[in-house]
Amino acid sequence: MRFDAAVFDFDGTLVDSAPAKRDAFFAIFPSSAAHRAVVAAVLTEDPDGSRHRVIPLMAQRMAVAGLDPGAPEAELVRRYGEVSEAAVGAAGELPGASALLAVLASRIPLHVCSNTPEETVRNHVAARGWSAYFRSVDGHPTMKARRVAEILKAAAISPQRLAVIGDGISDEAAAVENGCVFLAIRAPGDLGRAGRIITGDADV
Asked: What is the pTM (predicted TM-score) of this model?
C-alpha cells in the first residue's frame, strides 16, 4: 500500500452533485439577470465557500446594488438547504464509488471531510449505505486543513502517507498545508485513478 489513510471530500468527489449544488444558489434568489450576476460573481470568488458565508455575501451585495434578495439571509440559507439536499440525494455516485470505498475500507482507514453542514453530510453518507466505510465524517464548521492535521496526529503517520481526494480548492489547500498528497477529481474517471494510486493496485 502506498498510503496509510485517505480523506475524501463528498460532493463532486464521491457523488456527482457539485453542479446541482451550484445551481441551488441561483434557485433561491430572484431570477433576474442582475441577481444572477451577483450570485455568479460570488461563486467565482469563493467557489468552495460554505452556504453560511456565501449566501449572506450574495444578499449583502444585492442590497448594495439596490436589488431585493427576496428573503432574509436566514431564510435564504434554509431554502438553499432544502434545494441542495434534495439535489444531492437524487444525484448519482461517481462511477465506481461504492465499489472503490468497499475495497479501500478493507485496507486503510477512510475519512470524509466536507464543507457541507456536518449533520447533512452524515445523513447523505448514511443514506447511501457508506457509513461503515468511514472512521469519521466531518462537515461545516470543521476546517479541512485542521481535520487533516488531527487525523495525521491521531494515526501517527507521515503526511506523505495520507491522501486527500477532492475536487475543490479547500481540499487541495488542506493537503498542501499538511504536506499530504492531493489527488484531484476533475472528471468521472479520476476517482478510479485515485483508487489505483492509493493502493498501487491495478485491479482497483
From this structure: 0.88
